[in-house]
TrEMBL record:
<feature type="transmembrane region" description="Helical">
    <location>
        <begin position="125"/>
        <end position="147"/>
    </location>
</feature>
<feature type="transmembrane region" description="Helical">
    <location>
        <begin position="79"/>
        <end position="96"/>
    </location>
</feature>
<keyword id="KW-1133">Transmembrane helix</keyword>
<feature type="transmembrane region" description="Helical">
    <location>
        <begin position="167"/>
        <end position="189"/>
    </location>
</feature>
<feature type="transmembrane region" description="Helical">
    <location>
        <begin position="38"/>
        <end position="59"/>
    </location>
</feature>
<keyword id="KW-0812">Transmembrane</keyword>
<protein>
    <submittedName>
        <fullName>Uncharacterized protein</fullName>
    </submittedName>
</protein>
<keyword id="KW-0472">Membrane</keyword>
Length: 212
């Protein structure tokens, strides 16, 4: 943004004619910067999808489910997986359409509108993924509790516990684990998309000054 700062200083100091020229140059720079940011959002989301796909191939969940003899759960997991794929592909499509719109617009107001729309799409994408972390974690804990033979001792303790103290401890422990997972994933997404969203936010603020 150093180039933009130099233009802004010159714009404030020089004549009205020069002001009009530099205003157009600043818009072009902000337009290019916004388009680049959205392009990287699109690229990162595609790479992220490829990474999760690779991890699913490496860590075969079907084999783990068969080992626990929880085959009746496979249909529900497959449906959830297909829904998740469809939603993520829809978000990637939205990132693509946002990139095309921002790259081709010639209007300051439209560019500002598209920047806000892109930011909202990314935020919804992050919230969706965090929600899926919660759903997947809860489902994994329930399946492990119901089908894993390694948890037989805990089940016996729960059955013998009249005051439900064991259940409370388990719920607290699982809640803590889930919170840790959520924080890790939130930091992951903040690292991936936070910088690009800040750039878009700064561009929006600069465009708003031009549009006044």
């Amino acid at each position: 943004m150093e180039e933009l700062d130099l233009l802004k200083k010159a714009w404030q100091k020089d004549t009205q004619s020069f002001q009009q020229v530099t205003e157009n140059e600043i818009y072009k720079m902000l337009h290019k910067n916004s388009s680049s940011s959205v392009k990287w959002i699109l690229i990162i989301s595609i790479l992220e999808l490829a990474l999760w796909t690779l991890m699913n191939v490496i860590f075969n969940a079907d084999e783990y489910i068969k080992q626990m003899h929880a085959e009746e759960m496979m249909i529900y997991l497959k449906v959830l997986n297909y829904i998740n794929w469809a939603v993520i592909l829809w978000f990637i499509y939205r990132f693509y359409t946002n990139y095309i719109k921002i790259s081709t617009t010639n209007s300051t107001k439209q560019l500002m509108h598209d920047i806000l729309k892109t930011r909202k799409t990314v935020q919804n994408y992050v919230w969706y993924n965090l929600g899926m972390v919660v759903v997947s974690s809860v489902l994994g804990f329930v399946m492990a509790f119901l089908y894993s033979p390694d948890l037989g001792l805990i089940k016996d303790q729960i059955a013998q516990d009249e005051g439900n103290g064991t259940i409370i401890k388990i719920v607290c422990m699982l809640s803590l684990v889930m919170i840790v997972f959520l924080v890790i994933f939130w930091l992951f997404y903040k690292l991936l998309y936070g910088f690009l969203l800040r750039r878009l936010s700064n561009n929006y603020k600069e465009l708003k000054k031009i549009d006044l």
